[in-house]
């Protein structure tokens, strides 16, 4: 009996030893390794290598190699999955198990996908058996051997260019000059040359010294200091400084500078936070991206898609294998309806002022110009604007960085044709009825307290009909018209002209607005009648709102992109009747062509213009004297292919809207003489 018990104990011990000597299942181990790889946790991967593999490569070598390669190829959307068999894999004669795994990733040269095999061996560490990876260079990419390298060639897509209707480039791919210093070329200690360069570039000398003292700089290195435009007048003088040289590089160029700055916007190098969001769309750290204006709005169309080639090469740089290859697809051009002759003429008229202007073809809705004054030079932002220069722009009281054509303002008396149209359509205004108004100020009754409506000038006749009210721009007449129309109908009528909704246009504009909630009193309603109060319009919508007077009542939608055969796209049909359109248009002709009209002086020979002036007073309370914005909207009555709307700020000391009228008329005269619209 005792002998049997001894035999059983010995057998149990053997079973226990045999059980303890079995290695754990390798499946979870290979899965863990692949997850670390997929997450690019290369240090964790290294900790799972076998002792033999660790003798072949150090941790730093392993981690740095993977990091450099994956960064270089812009690896993303990485998927690395082991093929786990239904049964635990059998060991080979060396005690290793082999797994197949599948790799998928996107790169700058397109997708890479492959199957490969990996071996694991069982090792004891810290008195525990576990599985460890037998790694070699083929695990990076199949076919790689020790000493091989991964080479990446990037084929940059060309950014699409932006053209005007006549093929003139507003945003084009051009060249710039990178100013730099090769230290060994500097005479003596180089201080004189550095001082001269700092002065010409308007930078501090210590910025140059810092660049030259960077750790990578060698005597023969070209050290970039600043990039300037190819046509920069300073370039010739700079290159005469001893030891100073330059290199040409491709860049985005804006030939019209300030004249089209807010329209084109600009590009800049993509920022880290932007790249984090857009990397999945193929953006790289070396890319530029549209920041404002057309460059930003049409980014997807303009940017194109860069390509590249990823190759494995040996020590002698001989190609062993192409891993991925993708051709670059250049961005598509954008051709606008904008005419840069007109855009530039308008900017020239406004250059010394603060304001905005738009020009359209009122028959087709083609947007011919969108202007801001003052502007800024977009090239400064592309080439790397200095902080001091940017601060100057930000602190400038005229706010050159403010995109005025995208914002709304009180339109003043340029709104009166809309009030008249609403009154005629609601039958609350009899155009032939003469209203008896005397004096320069009017108050409905004593309930208005200190509230008065004031005429700009006292009208010679006390009897005023619609035509006279339009000619003289009579605030009192249109205030009374708004009261007769009423708040409900006034807002409803304005909405037929496109108020309180998005304008169907490519660029983002603040909506023109007139709401019932904003008209909180009779006095506010009266002010609304002549374009003050709570009515607000953007400069483009103001021009568009005059198209029903030209198109028998249809409100035309604005169009920015050029079409082969432009046809009008109606935003809203039958806003007013053809009869109302004819009557309003007739009175607008008198405003400009009748010598009594507010838009008459100076007379313009050769063109019969129709239009409306306006002066909007900006003040925070009743009785104070505020700043004034001057407005003028005009179109050619005989050949209505051009309509210009312009607003100039701070005209209170410049004769109000009469300061704006000559600017618009000169633009008509110059432009129609240079090149009549087709």
Write the topology of this structure.
Layout: H1 2-21, H2 27-38, H3 42-47, H4 51-56, H5 59-72, E1 76-83, E2 96-107, E3 110-125, E4 128-134, E5 149-155, E6 162-163, E7 169-181, H6 191-201, H7 205-212, E8 223-229, H8 235-238, E9 244-253, H9 261-264, E10 267-269, H10 272-278, E11 288-290, H11 293-297, H12 299-303, E12 307-313, E13 319-326, E14 334-335, H13 340-350, E15 355-360, E16 367-373, H14 378-383, H15 387-395, E17 408-409, H16 416-425, E18 435-436, E19 441-442, E20 453-454, E21 463-464, H17 466-472, H18 475-485, H19 487-496, H20 522-529, E22 537-538, H21 539-544, E23 555-556, E24 570-572, H22 578-593, E25 609-618, E26 627-636, E27 643-648, H23 661-674
Parallel strand pairs: 6-14
Antiparallel strand pairs: 1-2, 2-3, 3-4, 5-12, 6-7, 7-8, 7-9, 10-11, 12-13, 15-16, 15-27, 17-22, 18-21, 19-20, 23-24, 25-26, 26-27
Helix pairs in contact: 6-7, 13-23, 16-18, 16-19, 16-22, 17-22, 18-20
- Which range does the strand content fall in? 15-25%
- Give the second-level CATH assignment, the architecture of the largest domain: 3-Layer(aba) Sandwich
Classify the secondary structure makeup into a structural class: alpha+beta
The helix content, as a percent range, equals 25-40%
Number of domains as seen in the coordinates: 3
Model description:
- The structure is a single chain.
- With 678 residues, this protein is an alpha+beta fold.
- It has three domains: 24-146, Nuclear Transport Factor 2, Chain: A; 174-252, Penicillin-binding protein 2a, domain 3 (Ribosomal Protein L30, Chain: A); 341-392 and 406-674, DD-peptidase/beta-lactamase superfamily (Beta-lactamase), CATH 3.40.710.10.
- Helices cover 31% and strands 24% of the residues.
- The protein has 23 helices and 27 strands.
- The strands form nine sheets. Strands 6, 7, 8, 9 and 14 form a five-stranded mixed sheet that branches. Strands 16-15-27-26-25 form a five-stranded antiparallel sheet.
- Strand 26 and strand 27 form a beta hairpin.
- Helix 6 (191-201) packs across helix 7, helix 16 packs across helix 19 (487-496) and helix 18 (475-485) packs across helix 20.
- The radius of gyration is 37 Å and the shape is elongated.
